[in-house]
Amino acid sequence: MVDEFLGTHTPRLDDKGRLFLPARFRGALADGLVVTRGQEGCLYVFPTSEFHRISQEMQSVSGSAKGVRDFIRVFRASAHPDTPDKQGRVTVPQALRAYAGLDKDCTVIGNGSRLEVWDTARWTQYLDQVMPAYSAYSAGSEEVVPGL
Questions:
Q1: Which residues does the UniProt record annotate as the domain SpoVT-AbrB (predicted)?
Q2: Tens-digit pLDDT profile for residues 59-80
Q3: For the chain, which residues make up each domain, given as ranges?
Q4: Strand locations in 1-148 (E)
Q5: How many helices (H) does the chain have, and how many strands (E)?
Q6: Chain centroid to CA 56
Q7: What is the dihedral of CA 12, 39, 126, 134, to 10 degrees?
Q8: Three-state secondary structure call for residue 16
Q9: In 3D, which of 19, 26, 69 has the Cα closest to residue 43?
Q10: Class for domain 8-139, per CATH?
Q11: Is the distance from CB of 82 to CB of 91 less than 8 angstroms?
């Protein structure tokens, strides 16, 4: 079991829209997972239990703000439950592939309690945008995460 998803992996989608999960994460996702729309144009992949925990937290948030309602609605409506096959593949529905711009080359990053699936070109573009700020944070010119 994985305590936390970490690292960067570069699997490919096959012709049927199936993604080969990185081998180190397959055990944590073997009992099921949920793929849904993420932020910045990626997909989020949660173990089923983590998705349900987050979904329950969303239930307790006030729905009086339209942005909150919109986010929760799209997050849940685009959710696709799946169980990896014996080869560790999961099917990514066409609507989610289109949202994330996934065709063949993917980058899967571990981000704590979830995986993020990016189109590799989009991930590279994202890194090009954020690395100057990250370098500034690393140089100590600004504290981003208090205490780190």
A1: 8-50, 79-122
A2: 888 778 888 889 899 999 999 9
A3: 8-139
A4: 8-9, 18-20, 33-37, 43-47, 80-82, 89-91, 106-111, 114-119
A5: 5, 8
A6: 18
A7: -120
A8: coil
A9: 19
A10: alpha beta
A11: yes
